[in-house]
Amino acid sequence: MKIRTGLFLAGVLCALIATPPVARAGLKPGDPVRGKKIFLSFCVQCHGIKGNGNGIAAPALMNKPANFTDPTLWTSHEEAFFLETIRHGRGGMAPYWDVLTPQQIQDVLSYEKTFRKN
User: Fold this and answer.
1) Is 39 a domain residue?
2) What contacts 15, CB < 8 A, 6 or more positions away?
Protein backbone atom coordinates (compact mmCIF):
# COMPACT_ATOMS: atom_id res chain seq x y z
CA MET A 1 0.00 0.00 0.00
CA LYS A 2 2.82 2.43 0.86
CA ILE A 3 4.58 1.69 -2.44
CA ARG A 4 1.38 2.24 -4.43
CA THR A 5 0.73 5.56 -2.66
CA GLY A 6 4.35 6.60 -3.19
CA LEU A 7 4.18 5.80 -6.89
CA PHE A 8 0.94 7.73 -7.22
CA LEU A 9 2.41 10.79 -5.51
CA ALA A 10 5.56 10.55 -7.62
CA GLY A 11 3.42 10.46 -10.76
CA VAL A 12 1.43 13.50 -9.65
CA LEU A 13 4.65 15.36 -8.83
CA CYS A 14 6.13 14.54 -12.25
CA ALA A 15 2.95 15.73 -13.97
CA LEU A 16 3.04 19.01 -12.06
CA ILE A 17 6.69 19.60 -12.88
CA ALA A 18 6.25 18.75 -16.57
CA THR A 19 3.16 20.92 -17.02
CA PRO A 20 3.90 24.60 -17.60
CA PRO A 21 1.87 26.98 -15.47
CA VAL A 22 -1.17 28.17 -17.38
CA ALA A 23 -2.88 30.28 -14.78
CA ARG A 24 -1.72 33.86 -14.64
CA ALA A 25 -2.38 34.14 -10.92
CA GLY A 26 0.33 36.10 -9.20
CA LEU A 27 1.73 37.65 -12.39
CA LYS A 28 2.18 41.37 -12.79
CA PRO A 29 0.56 43.06 -15.78
CA GLY A 30 2.69 42.71 -18.88
CA ASP A 31 5.44 45.29 -19.33
CA PRO A 32 5.93 46.27 -22.99
CA VAL A 33 9.44 47.62 -22.29
CA ARG A 34 10.60 44.25 -20.96
CA GLY A 35 8.56 42.53 -23.65
CA LYS A 36 10.32 44.44 -26.42
CA LYS A 37 13.71 43.14 -25.32
CA ILE A 38 12.41 39.57 -25.38
CA PHE A 39 10.61 40.10 -28.71
CA LEU A 40 13.84 41.39 -30.27
CA SER A 41 15.68 38.30 -29.01
CA PHE A 42 13.20 35.58 -29.92
CA CYS A 43 10.39 36.85 -32.16
CA VAL A 44 11.68 39.50 -34.55
CA GLN A 45 13.23 37.00 -36.98
CA CYS A 46 9.79 35.74 -37.98
CA HIS A 47 7.36 38.50 -36.96
CA GLY A 48 9.56 41.38 -38.08
CA ILE A 49 10.70 44.59 -36.43
CA LYS A 50 7.31 46.18 -37.18
CA GLY A 51 5.35 43.12 -36.00
CA ASN A 52 3.80 42.69 -39.44
CA GLY A 53 4.88 39.06 -39.98
CA ASN A 54 7.62 40.00 -42.46
CA GLY A 55 10.72 39.06 -40.51
CA ILE A 56 13.89 37.89 -42.22
CA ALA A 57 12.96 34.22 -41.68
CA ALA A 58 9.31 34.59 -42.77
CA PRO A 59 9.83 33.75 -46.47
CA ALA A 60 11.34 30.38 -45.57
CA LEU A 61 8.40 29.36 -43.35
CA MET A 62 5.51 27.21 -44.55
CA ASN A 63 3.05 29.11 -42.34
CA LYS A 64 3.16 32.89 -42.41
CA PRO A 65 3.88 34.42 -38.98
CA ALA A 66 1.13 36.42 -37.33
CA ASN A 67 0.76 40.03 -38.37
CA PHE A 68 0.27 41.93 -35.12
CA THR A 69 -0.72 45.10 -37.01
CA ASP A 70 -3.87 43.41 -38.35
CA PRO A 71 -6.86 44.51 -36.23
CA THR A 72 -8.76 41.36 -37.21
CA LEU A 73 -6.15 39.23 -35.46
CA TRP A 74 -6.84 40.98 -32.17
CA THR A 75 -10.62 41.01 -32.44
CA SER A 76 -10.90 37.36 -33.46
CA HIS A 77 -8.99 35.91 -30.49
CA GLU A 78 -9.02 36.24 -26.72
CA GLU A 79 -5.82 37.03 -24.80
CA ALA A 80 -5.59 33.40 -23.66
CA PHE A 81 -5.16 32.34 -27.31
CA PHE A 82 -2.07 34.51 -27.68
CA LEU A 83 -0.59 33.39 -24.35
CA GLU A 84 -1.10 29.74 -25.25
CA THR A 85 0.41 30.30 -28.70
CA ILE A 86 3.56 31.76 -27.16
CA ARG A 87 3.71 28.95 -24.61
CA HIS A 88 3.04 26.00 -26.89
CA GLY A 89 3.60 27.27 -30.43
CA ARG A 90 1.16 26.96 -33.31
CA GLY A 91 1.39 26.15 -37.00
CA GLY A 92 5.13 25.54 -37.00
CA MET A 93 5.98 28.21 -34.43
CA ALA A 94 8.34 26.99 -31.72
CA PRO A 95 6.98 26.71 -28.17
CA TYR A 96 8.55 28.97 -25.56
CA TRP A 97 7.17 27.53 -22.31
CA ASP A 98 10.60 26.07 -21.55
CA VAL A 99 12.51 29.21 -22.57
CA LEU A 100 10.45 32.07 -21.14
CA THR A 101 8.90 32.44 -17.70
CA PRO A 102 5.16 33.04 -17.46
CA GLN A 103 5.91 36.69 -16.63
CA GLN A 104 8.14 37.05 -19.69
CA ILE A 105 5.40 35.57 -21.87
CA GLN A 106 2.99 38.14 -20.42
CA ASP A 107 5.54 40.89 -21.17
CA VAL A 108 5.99 39.73 -24.79
CA LEU A 109 2.25 39.77 -25.36
CA SER A 110 2.06 43.25 -23.87
CA TYR A 111 4.68 44.40 -26.39
CA GLU A 112 2.97 42.63 -29.30
CA LYS A 113 -0.20 44.57 -28.46
CA THR A 114 1.67 47.82 -29.18
CA PHE A 115 1.62 46.89 -32.90
CA ARG A 116 -2.21 46.90 -33.01
CA LYS A 117 -3.81 49.25 -35.48
CA ASN A 118 -7.37 50.40 -34.87
Assistant:
1) yes
2) none
> What does pTM read for this prediction?
0.77
Determine contact, residues 51/67, Cβ cutoff 8 Å. yes
What's the pLDDT score for residue 25? Answer: 63
Per-residue model confidence as pLDDT tens digits over 96-109: 999 999 999 999 99
DSSP symbol at 28? P
How distant, in Å, are the alpha carbons of 16, 17, 59, 76, 115 from that of 46?
A: 32, 30, 9, 21, 15
Query: In terms of C-beta density within 10 A (0-12 exposed, 13-18 middle, 19 or more buried), how is residue 106 classed?
Result: buried
What is the distance between the alpha carbons of residues 108 and 43, in angstroms, rounded to a whole number?
9
Q: How many domains does the chain have?
A: 1
68 located within any domain: yes
Q: Indicate the DSSP class of residue 43.
A: T
Rounded Cα distance between 70 and 75, Å, is: 9
| Tens of pLDDT, residues 10-54 | 554 445 444 444 444 689 999 999 999 999 999 999 999 999 999
